[in-house]
Amino acid sequence: MQDGPGTPPDPAEFEARRVRLLAGAQTTLNDHADLLAPLAAAFGDAGHELYLVGGSVRDALLGRLGTDLDFTTDARPDTVRGILENYADTVWDTGIEFGTLSAVTYDAAGIEQQIEVTTYRADSYDGVSRNPEVVFGDTLEGDLIRRDFTVNAMAVRLHPDGRHEFCDPLDGMDALLVGLLDTPAAPEQSFADDPLRMLRACRFVSQLGFSLAPRVFRAMTEMTAEIDRITVERVRAELDKTILGDYPIDGINMLCEAGLADRVLPEVPGMKLERDEHLQHKDVYWHSLTVLKQAIDLEPAGPDLVLRWAALLHDVGKPATRAAKPGGGVTFHHHEVVGAKMVRKRMRALKYSKQMIEDVSGLVFLHLRFHGYGEGQWSDSAVRRYVSDAGDLLPRLHRLVRADCTTRNKRRAAKLQASYDSLEHRIAEIEEKEDLARVRPDLDGNEIMTLLGLAPGPDVGRAWAFLKELRLDRGPLDRDEAEAELVRWWAEQNGGPQNDHQQNDRPQNGDPA
User: Fold this and answer.
1) Confidence band (pLDDT; 50, 70, 90) for 436?
2) What is the CA radius of gyration of the chain?
3) CA atoms within 13 A on the CB side of 398
4) Exposed/middle/buried for 196, CB within 10 Å: 0-12, 13-18, 19+?
5) In this structure, are 154 and 50 located in the same domain?
6) Are residues 35 and 179 in the same domain?
7) Is 87 within 8 Å of 105 (Cβ atoms)?
8) Per the database entry, which stretches of residues form a coiled coil (predicted)?
């Protein structure tokens, strides 16, 4: 992170960094000349200005320009449409009533580039909805001042001859150099216009590692109730972007410190009330953030949204399950069960997909299971059940369990990791002999019905469940053994033993006797 707002930067270094960032952005834009020059020429030929704007400029300066580029222009939407239709492969209305059109084209390397062009705007808000009353503007400055943060209120004019002219009327570059998020206008007005900007502030803290200007933080803490005007879908999207950022601990902590989490994700600040049972961390809240950090360190290939949510929420059930132990200390019995229920409830409220809810709550429910492993006393049956219950979540469960070790006692930490190494080794040994990823009964439904003379129905499901439990307990059985065990079990379910002749005399496939 750059120098904080309370640390005056060295003027010479400050200027040198500015020059480096501008030079780097120039190189980045030159690399996109095959995309930008024809677009600038098309607008210039039509007598209009074109600016790269907002987050695209910020990211160009930071050397992280992506494939979604934002532009603004003095041309009205109908004119923009005509220009884009002659330039791009595909054009559509993103929000024509807001002056925005989008297009897709491809650069010289064949990489898809999505561009969004919006007419200058000078919006007004009614204080109820976050959707503005759109008024098209006439100046770049008027358009920039309505934006969320000064680091997103810079622009680069694109000239038809390929020149790039940096425009920064609101000193966004200064804010960028010191890593500061501030609003172009008064933050109270900015957040009243669009309360989602408060969540976006936390998201940018997570993505960029920046700090909030004191007046921005103060306004957020005073205006948290305004977030209730935002739809849950928008809230969910910002929460996901926050947890997927490069600095998610900072973003989530800011969400809590500002009081916004109390309204959109209250289970997380609620953990501040509880001390971690190992007393190695300030409280369960900070323990959970530490687990999130350690889970991120274990991600094999980029951000894993399911793992990150599970790491953050794995202990949300502790406040509701806290109980004093005789002689001192506390327990949190069954907090994984309570926590899984809490996760499902919160994620349903945020309208996550069914699969996302099942995956995150499933990891929360399973995260303590390993601690029964002890010194490796689990039977092969217990190992099979661990793998079977985790299913496709097993690789994530491995990472979550390892991340959940936050003790500062090096000997204890090493012992826990060695114990989990042992469990993974046991899983690998069993997997060499049998397919643990798809533990199924040794007989299928049709074979069960034929053997027991059953029609499709609940009894077949019960028999299948019995065979799966048997498979988990004893591993793969040969066909004769599986059939004998099923016949024995079915006889017990029906009041006593029966011989093969009785079994074969049973009605077949539901036919009457």
Assistant:
1) low
2) 30
3) 17
4) buried
5) yes
6) yes
7) yes
8) 413-440
161-173 residue pLDDT tens: 889 999 999 999 9
User: Do 44 and 75 fall within a single domain?
Assistant: yes
Asked if pLDDT for residue 195 goes beyond 50, the answer is: yes
Neighbours of 226 (CB within 10 A): 23
**Tokens encoding 509:** 């496939």
Coil vs helix vs strand at 161: coil
Cα gap 263→20, rounded to integer Å: 41
* Number of neighbours of residue 373 by Cβ within 10 angstroms: 18
| 319 and 227 together in one domain | no
The domain boundary residue, chosen from 137, 169, 185: 185
Alpha-carbon span 101 to 77, nearest angstrom:
7
Cβ(377)–Cβ(346) under 8 Å?
no
pTM: 0.82
Which of 382, 412, 436 is where one domain is finished?
436
Print the domain residue range for 480: 440-504
The pLDDT, as a whole number, for residue 498 is 46
Check residue 127 and report its DSSP letter.
S
Residues 439, 476: Cα–Cα separation, whole Å: 9
Separation of alpha carbons 296 and 306, rounded Å: 11
